[in-house]
Write a structure and sequence with these properties.
This protein is about 50% helix and about 20% strand. With about 325 residues, it is α/β, with parallel strands linked by helices. It has one domain (about 30-325). Strands 2-3-4-1-5-6-9-8-7 form a 9-stranded mixed β-sheet, sandwiched between helices. Helix 5 links the parallel strand 5 (about 155-160) and strand 6.
Length: about 325
């Protein structure tokens, strides 16, 4: 009898393991479908954008010199990796310049990237608040209004890290103001390899949108997990009525994580997913500006070539690889 019971237990455990395996396979399949939907949407948008602004620009080059600018708002406490994130997005070190916002009484740093192609100059500016937690509300309002009305940024990127101080009331006001002005918000937890402390930061960032949904207008959330377990998930937020994406919450590590005491070395992670998440949420007009920001990010375009090539025809791929010199 004991042997039979043991056999039944073993049999039941095998059945349970099979069920768990089936569930895991199903979940992995769902994850791949979610990622595929994003990739297909982005491939379609990016195909049209690259055709018009990158691949065939020689045929449309302007005779006279012209200037094009795009802007991103950047915010968050000091020493959370904002400057390294800017460099990671652009694929090169970006110069710091004067702010040029006279109406703002506090210091604002501006990181500027300038490129020139086909007789046209492109200027990308990241507007970064310094120590926004110590600002008065009128100063914050002045800064945000100046950026929105004068610069028309394509998105806000707010960075927070485990151990830093974030005034959640001011962050709520900042996010609400941006969404009201049709500016996409990306709230990012940097230095993601801190276990439970990272989870706490992500919870605070997600709670901003829970409160926004309760107090202002209903939002729906969509969490997209990666089929790669080492890649962080992204939670998207959309206006429930219009279905328009308004924000995302994610986590990244822009530089290699090293813990010599535990002999751990982890590569940078999450930047590609952050870029694609933002681009998938923007209109094609704003994607065109985003392309200018990341145009020199060789690692991004190499991975895009690998990820989206299945959605593009061979003629487009040949032009794409020729332009970016991707083998």
């Amino acid at each position: 009898m004991a042997t039979k019971e043991s056999g039944n237990k073993t049999s039941n455990w095998e059945k349970a393991k099979n069920v768990i395996t089936a569930v895991n396979v199903t979940n992995a399949f769902k994850k791949s479908l979610e990622e595929a939907k994003i990739e297909e949407r982005l491939a379609t948008k990016l195909h049209r954008v690259l055709q018009s602004i990158v691949l065939y620009r020689e045929e449309k080059a302007l005779v006279e010199a012209s200037l094009s600018e795009c802007h991103i708002m950047l915010s968050g406490p000091p020493r959370v990796g904002k400057s390294t994130l800017i460099n990671a997005l652009c694929g090169s070190e970006v110069a710091r310049t004067s702010d040029g916002l006279a109406s703002c009484t506090q210091r604002v740093e501006c990181y500027t990237k300038t490129t020139e192609r086909y007789n046209r100059k492109y200027i990308v500016k990241f507007w970064d608040t310094v120590g926004i937690e110590s600002w008065t509300k009128p100063d914050i309002e002045s800064y945000v209004c100046d950026i929105i009305k004068i610069r028309h940024p394509i998105c806000l990127i707010f960075c927070a890290s485990p151990g830093c101080y974030v005034d959640l009331e001011r962050l709520f006001w900042l996010v609400t103001t941006c969404i009201d002005s049709n500016i996409f918000c990306a709230l990012v937890c940097t230095n993601m390899h801190f276990g439970n402390r990272t989870d706490s930061v992500l919870q605070d960032l997600n709670d901003i949108f829970l409160r926004l949904s309760q107090e202002k207008y209903p939002l729906i959330s969509e969490k997209v997990d990666s089929s790669n377990s080492s890649t962080p998930s992204i939670t998207f937020y959309s206006n429930k009525k219009t279905r328009q994406r308004v924000a995302l919450v994610s986590q990244i590590n822009t530089i290699e994580y090293v813990d010599l005491s535990k002999n751990i070395r982890l590569p940078p992670v999450g930047v590609f997913e952050l870029i694609t998440g933002i681009m998938d949420s923007l209109s094609e007009e704003k994607i065109e500006q985003m392309v200018e920001i990341i145009l020199n990010n060789r690692s991004f375009w190499t991975r895009i070539n690998q990820t989206l090539s299945g959605f593009w025809n061979e003629r487009f791929l040949q032009s794409f690889r020729s332009w970016f010199a991707i083998q």
